[in-house]
Specification:
Blueprint: H1 2-18, H2 25-34, H3 41-52, E1 56-62, E2 68-72, E3 78-80, E4 83-92, E5 98-102, H4 126-135, E6 138-143, E7 147-149, E8 153-162, E9 166-172, E10 175-178, E11 206-213, E12 216-223, E13 231-238, E14 243-244, E15 261-264, E16 268-271, E17 275-281, E18 286-287, E19 289-294, E20 301-305, E21 307-308, E22 317-324, H5 341-350, E23 355-360, H6 365-368, E24 376-377, H7 386-391, E25 408-415, E26 426-429, H8 450-458, E27 462-465, H9 495-498, E28 506-509, H10 514-526, E29 532-535, E30 551-555, H11 565-575, E31 578-581, E32 585-592, E33 599-602, E34 606-616, E35 651-658, E36 661-669, E37 675-683, E38 687-693, E39 697-699, E40 702-706, H12 715-732, H13 738-761
Helix pairs in contact: 1-2, 1-3, 2-3, 10-12, 12-13
């Protein structure tokens, strides 16, 4: 069995080299020579053990039952603060069991369930949380293959991350999940394949007195192109592509589900000596900047000069994300139900957004509603839970920047996790009161959406539907299409009832497939409704990247500021030019015959001129396949300009739409420069016109009414909407309370009657 043992040792030594902690060159060569040594296997095995013993941190003995006993090895237990150190683990397996080895740590903070969407938790306050955080200083993981392959002795590599500097005591425990074999069935049933026994009392741990070399604070000087200080998303990776600070050790405002952290000019990240690649961005209006630094030198600060390629605000267009969350989904759930405005504003600033709508919803409703005021706010980005963050070693001071006042929050409501959620998740923007009349619990709210929408309108709120495409895919990319969806999820379902009854203003998308998101919208526009479409993120439920993955740009005479900033932004959305998308392309000053107004009157059918200024940016080349040893490239999902690239060129297609159908197209070089475009379009009847780069940007329509006639562009659209109400009732009526069902049926009937009237008014199929 010498050759397999030597192979295991060689693989472990190569793994240490690959992760940047090579053993001495002469040791590698001595191992290689043993392959041809003429001595007995026993002698050669002993030499392998002798060569590797100084580098073994832990010896693991596996007994006949698959239980382990761990003892310290000969390697000095030296770690580094805020960094990784790797060692060998010797695994003695005399009974030659097969299985999977793990090293669960009692020192990793276990406060966050990465997969939970649920709500009220048991960690009530920092009296119990802070001691747990203080004790959660060590992260442990096995690097490379973790399978125990049945050898008498084999070697593994273990990596340890220390949050702290100085002397710390900690223990290492190893657990074997035994693989079921014919032989193992004759032994007592201690473990099954994939079963972990990390808290089994018969697993014996080894105690270590670690010496952790201190790291140092590296200050970041983040600057806009004009020299102003700002907040940006910084991703710090070492040569092994590991992100810093350790994701498992993070507390808000640093999120465990991000690769990046948000830092303002003058703020710090604690890093050990080493080579790093630091990338910086501030949303899609900026090209990513990468800086390589060697922190083995006496470097105390790193300068980051951001690279902005587009500035919509300079053209009067102000960005907003109408759908972000501070609790629930994959967000933090401690100490109560999510994070505070002081964290959310940091994220909004770091993504270059002017407006961020923080929506309270079911899992976090009772806790997060305390932050609702009915006003727009721009708080200072403090560290929100000082005792917890002090225990975690987050002692840096938040810094103000020149751009802070350009980002605001407004707390509002998403009706998700409420009794009417089956009808589609409703967003209510600009509320003055978050509590539905006559209710004390969210379970008391209506079980269908129309009453909620009307309640929102009574407060002058703008109301609509979130993540509009969910459950509305029908197996075609055609737009518009006439396939009736099943309405089996939580997209903009009941919008087809609410809009004809004057109770819904918008739907939100720019997250999924355009055909699923835009089809209802196109049909509603085709029968004359003025429904709006917004870009949203649903951060961090659908997208974890950050706020503003989907965003909406609204033209305003001045920047939205002060307590009524959201109201000003919404007024501009209702009345003026706007567009939505992924922020990697922009459409300014979209106009019909030089008029950028949303409503346009014509005396007779005939040609109109459609103009705009368009800008988009793509890298010159499509993403390359990953280099050897690098993570596999993941293609963009949802709306992303990369998915609009024509072949391998740098061009994308700008289309002009008339009633949802392309009436002209031009290729645009996506080099970041603004380019004037124009189309001559022949209108035969009253119509709506819009511009789009499919999967990246779409304007709100301009409505052209000819000879005073309303837009009735498609009998097929009216019939599709009518028939879809039947499908919606079939899918959702069973979820409506019996006491509310007759009122709902009456509303559904009224909506269908309206569609039939409009169908009969249409001139064309």
């Amino acid at each position: 069995m010498f050759q397999p043992q030597l192979a295991s040792a060689t693989r472990a030594v190569e793994k240490l080299r690959d992760i940047g902690e090579p053993l001495p060159d002469d040791l590698t060569s001595q191992l290689a020579k043993l392959a041809d040594d003429a001595q007995t296997d026993a002698v050669r095995s002993a030499k392998v053990e002798e060569l590797l013993r100084p580098y073994v941190l832990a010896d693991v003995q596996i007994d006949a039952q698959g239980l382990t006993a761990t003892t310290p090895g000969a390697a000095p237990p030296r770690l580094v603060q805020h960094g990784w150190r790797s060692f060998l683990v010797r695994v003695a397996n005399p009974h030659r069991l097969l299985g999977d080895l793990s090293a669960p740590s009692n020192h990793v903070l276990g406060l966050v369930d990465h997969h939970s969407h649920a709500a009220r938790i048991t960690l009530h306050d920092t009296l119990t949380v802070v001691p747990r955080i203080e004790g959660s200083w060590l992260q442990v993981k096995l690097a490379g293959p973790t399978d125990v392959s049945g050898l008498d002795v084999e070697y593994k590599v273990i990596s340890l991350y220390s949050r702290d500097g100085g002397g710390r005591s900690g223990e290492l425990t190893f657990v074997l999940a035994v693989e079921e074999t014919t032989e193992s069935l004759t032994r007592p049933p201690v473990a099954k394949a994939g079963q972990r026994m990390g808290f089994e009392s018969r697993q014996y741990a080894a105690m270590f007195d670690f010496d952790c070399l201190p790291a140092r604070d590296i200050r970041f000087d983040v600057r806009e192109p004009d020299g102003n200080s700002t907040v940006a998303a910084l991703t710090v990776r070492d040569s092994q592509r590991r992100a810093y600070p350790s994701k498992a050790m993070r507390l808000a405002p640093d999120m465990f589900f991000h690769e990046h952290v948000y830092r303002a000019t003058g703020e710090v990240i604690t890093l050990p000596a080493g080579q790093y690649e630091i990338s910086a961005r501030r949303g899609p209006e900026y090209r990513e900047v990468r800086v390589e630094v060697d922190l083995s030198a006496d470097i105390e600060a790193v300068t980051i000069e951001l690279d902005r390629w587009a500035d919509p605000a300079a053209r009067g267009y102000y960005s907003g994300d109408p759908h972000i969350h501070a609790g629930g989904c994959s967000h933090y759930s401690v100490p109560s139900e999510g994070v505070t405005p002081e964290t959310m504003i940091r994220h909004v600033r770091g993504e270059g957004l002017w407006m961020g709508s923080v929506l309270t919803w079911g899992p976090c409703y009772y806790h997060q509603k305390q932050f609702f005021s009915g006003l727009s706010i721009s708080p200072r980005a403090e560290l929100e839970y000082p005792a917890m963050q002090q225990a975690q070693g987050m002692t840096w001071d938040p810094q103000d920047t020149d751009r802070d006042s350009q980002s605001l929050l407004r707390y509002d409501l998403e009706v998700s996790g409420f009794p009417s959620s089956h009808s589609g998740h409703v967003i209510l923007l600009g509320l003055t009161d978050q509590d539905y009349p006559g209710t004390q619990l969210i379970e008391d709210w209506p079980s269908w959406n129309l009453p909620v929408m009307r309640w929102g309108h009574a407060q002058s709120a703008l109301v609509g539907y979130a993540h509009c495409g969910l459950g509305l895919s029908v197996g075609t990319d055609e737009l518009p299409n006439y396939v009736i969806p099943g309405f089996q999820s939580i997209g903009s379902n009941e919008i087809i009832v609410d809009v004809p009854l004057g109770a819904a203003d918008f739907q939100c998308g720019a997250e999924f497939a355009p055909a699923a998101e835009l089809n209802i919208w196109y049909h509603l526009l085709n029968v004359g409704y003025r429904t709006l479409m917004l870009g949203e993120t649903d951060y961090p439920c659908i997208y974890d990247d950050g706020p503003g993955v989907g965003r909406t740009y609204v033209r305003l005479p001045e920047a939205p500021q002060g307590e009524q900033a959201l109201e000003a932004w919404l007024d501009g959305l209702k009345e003026g030019p706007s567009y939505f998308g992924d922020g990697r392309s922009h459409v300014y000053d979209f106009a019909v015959d030089g008029d950028t107004g949303r409503e346009h009157a014509g005396d007779a059918p005939g040609p109109v001129r459609v103009t705009a200024t368009v800008a988009a940016w793509l890298p010159e080349e499509p993403p390359a396949p990953p280099a050897a040893g690098r993570p596999v490239y993941s293609a963009p999902v949802g709306w992303h300009l990369e998915r609009s690239r024509i072949g391998r060129s740098r061009n994308v297609l700008v289309e002009v739409l008339v009633n949802g159908v392309p009436a002209g197209a031009q290729e645009l070089l996506a080099d970041g420069n603004e380019q004037a475009i124009e189309f001559d379009v022949d209108l035969k009847r009253s119509s709506w016109i819009a511009l789009r780069i499919l999967r990246s940007v779409h304007t709100q329509p301009i409505f052209v009414e000819i000879a005073g006639l309303p837009i009735r562009a498609s009998r097929g659209s009216a019939q599709w909407l009518h028939d879809s109400v039947d499908a919606l009732w079939k899918a959702k009526s069973g979820f409506i309370r019996e006491t509310e069902r007759s009122a709902a049926r009456e509303a559904y009937d009224a909506a269908q009657a309206t569609y039939l009237v409009r169908r009969d008014e249409c001139e064309v199929d």
